[in-house]
Amino acid sequence: MNALLLEIKRGAPDQILAGLNDTNPDVSSAAGLRLCREANKFGLDVRNYLTLAIDVRAANDANGRNPYALPNGELMSGYQVALASLNLPIKNDFRNGITLQAAADTFSARPGTRALFPEVIDDMLQWSSRQDQLESTRGLIAQSRTISGNELITEAIFDDNNPSGGSPIAELANIPIQTLKSSDRSVKFYKHGSAIRTSYEFERRASLDVLTPYAARIARNLEIGKVKVATAMLINGDGVHAAADAANLTTFSADLSGGKTLKDNYQALMRFLVKRAQGGYPVDTIVGNFDMYVELFLMFTPVTGNQSVMEHLQGQGAPTVSLTLPVMKGVKFELSSGMPAGKLMCYSLGDTMEELVEANGAISESEIAIRNQSITYVKTEVTGYRLVYGDTRTLLDVTA
To answer: 190: which strand partners?
Structure first.
């Protein structure tokens, strides 16, 4: 059981960071290991621990001036103070004489600072690379929570035949209630990511930004791995909530004859979406693989020179009917290479799936880097997923 966050003893920057910047490698190593143990005790990564533990206001001088004040008058976060105090820049600033080589020198000469090595590389990647993630869990989940331990899957139990609670409540009648209870099944967690190990000699001779393209590949593959796990849960359920309901596009008058595919059946897709909305479960998210992306893209290929009768009459002054229901306009497509061929996962984002992130997933790797003559960049996430409700998902087969 992790200690409570309220028990973190806050202190001035030089108190929390004591020993990390010592020129004696043994003293620096001992301080780095102590920092890792403290973060691990509270179930936090080093970044979040420093943010909470460092009391930036305690650095005020007798005149109330703070060396960690930003130009806008706000103060740096505890983590930002640590980077400044330990000489760990995350980008080159030649105008002010700051180079990433300073961070490389710090990591080489003061091994305790390697506790922050993964965080510095992550920040450096944010500045150096603006690559878009084609596959990301951000568009698949209702929310993401950081936790410090295991968590049981929650189940909603309804005591009324009308779980949506949409009808007026009769006089003196009971208010419909859904009871949230913990099931006997826990969320299953998966570790994603990989690492780059560099030698002591490499760090002395190479600028830190050499790692940028390698770290970018790790970050992209990590996210793809998370998407595959999340997609599998959307399809198969989480052990408490069952697999997604199945539906066929032909049920909604799709015409698949003569080689026609999804791109030729916009009206059938619209009927499906309207039916889901009518049933109280509107779809705002559709997940598919690359082939399904192409099908939907071609569905909306513009055709110029044609107008419906209604559009023609409106051009002559006829009344305009505004159809602004977000049945189609509010639906977004999310890419997942883990989706099976010819299938679309359709659901409402806000009440379907939640992501849980284990806070201290990479602490042990940082401890190893402090002890060894090599520096390891570890980019890992320990994540699990749970379904909020089991009735929001439909797996639509667009080939049948």
So the answer is: 383
Q: Which two tokens stand for residue 152?
A: 């049981």
Strands of 189-292 (E only): list them.
189-199, 245-248, 285-288
* pLDDT over 60 at 235, yes or no: yes
CA–CA–CA angle 316, 317, 322 (5° rounding): 115
The half-sphere exposure of 220 on its side-chain side, counting CA atoms within 13 A, is 12
Classify 173 as helix, strand or coil: coil
- DSSP state, residue 11: B
For residues 380 and 386, give the distance between their C-alpha atoms in angstroms, rounded to a whole number.
Answer: 20
Task: State both tokens at 384.
Answer: 């699990």
User: SS3 for 299?
Assistant: helix
For residues 87-110, give the mean pLDDT. Answer: 73
Residue ranges of domains in the chain:
1-90
Percent of all residues in the chain with a pLDDT value above 70, rounded to a whole number = 81
For the chain, give the number of residues: 400
pTM above 0.85, yes or no: no
DSSP 215: H
Can you read off the two tokens belonging to residue 24?
A: 């004696």
Are 215 and 196 spatial neighbours (Cβ–Cβ below 8 Å)?
yes
Helix 117-128 vs helix 78-85: angle between axes, to the nearest 10 degrees? 100
Query: What's the pLDDT at 196?
Result: 78
State the average pLDDT for the chain: 83
Backbone torsions φ then ψ of 254, nearest 5 degrees: -70, 145
